From TrEMBL:
The protein's name: LysM domain-containing protein
Source species of the chain: Persicitalea jodogahamensis
Highest taxon of source: Bacteria
Compositional bias segments (type: Acidic residues): 70-83
Keywords per UniProt: Membrane, Transmembrane, Transmembrane helix
Transmembrane parts of this sequence: 21-42
Molecular function terms from GO: lytic endotransglycosylase activity
Disordered: annotated span: 47-120
InterPro entries, per database record: LysM, LysM_dom_sf
Length: 223
């Protein structure tokens, strides 16, 4: 009886795996590509830094701030300082508007009286001690209004009279020079006044006049 030959096992054919080789090549290619890209990037940065360091700065041009360049020049004009003082805080108190100033009406100046046109002759009377404005007016037979109009420089007839200093303008009928036979009674009759009026106007206390004396003749009626 013949011996059976043992059956041969199915032996798998040997397969050559190329997958690890392809993967290795792919990784190598990627590494080379990354190296090339990185080298170019480093080279560009080096060139840029060289250009920056080799640039010569421009020292001829001057920088003009925009606030000076845009505004027109104003030579000789001072600008008002609107800044607040140091002791003033950021919050400023609002003050009430000042009350309107009401001006008092000015008193109207008193019109200067015009000198009275009483005629006659103007003389100057020097105020003696004890004399008053009314007494002087009565001495020359003048009203106080007439005497005040003849002396507008007086502001107060009671305080402005100073003995031996104040001189008043007075109007009289005439000034008579005493001649031969001119006694007071005769002179008074000549000008239609009383002897008493003639004596008062000339400050006489007795009935006597010297030759060549000048007598003041007052008005016969009050002016």
């Amino acid at each position: 009886m013949e011996e059976e030959e043992p059956k041969k096992r199915n032996i798998r054919p040997k397969e050559t795996s190329r997958l690890p080789l392809i993967t290795l090549l792919s990784l190598l290619a990627i590494i080379v590509a990354l190296f090339v890209i990185g080298w170019e990037y480093i080279s560009d940065d080096a060139k840029g830094s060289d250009e920056v360091t080799n640039t010569v700065p421009d020292t001829t041009s001057k920088y003009i701030p925009p606030d000076i360049r845009d505004e027109p020049e104003d030579i000789g004009n001072e600008t008002e300082d609107t800044s607040l003082p140091d002791n003033v805080g950021s919050a400023v108190a609002v003050q009430d508007p000042p009350a309107p100033v009401v001006e008092k009406p000015k008193p109207e100046p008193k019109p200067t009286p015009k000198p009275a046109n009483v005629g006659g002759k103007e003389i100057t009377h020097t105020v003696a001690s004890g004399e008053t404005f009314f007494g002087i007016a009565n001495r020359y037979n003048l009203s106080t209004e007439t005497l005040r109009s003849l002396n507008p420089q007086l502001t107060n007839t009671s305080t402005d009279l100073k003995a031996g200093v104040t001189k008043l303008n007075v109007r009289v009928q005439a000034v008579h020079t005493v001649g031969p036979g001119d006694v007071l009674r005769v002179v008074a009759k000549k000008y239609n006044i009383s002897k008493q009026q003639l004596m008062e106007a000339n400050g006489k206390s007795r009935d006597y006049a010297e030759r060549g004396e000048k007598l003041v003749i007052p008005f016969g009626v009050r002016k």
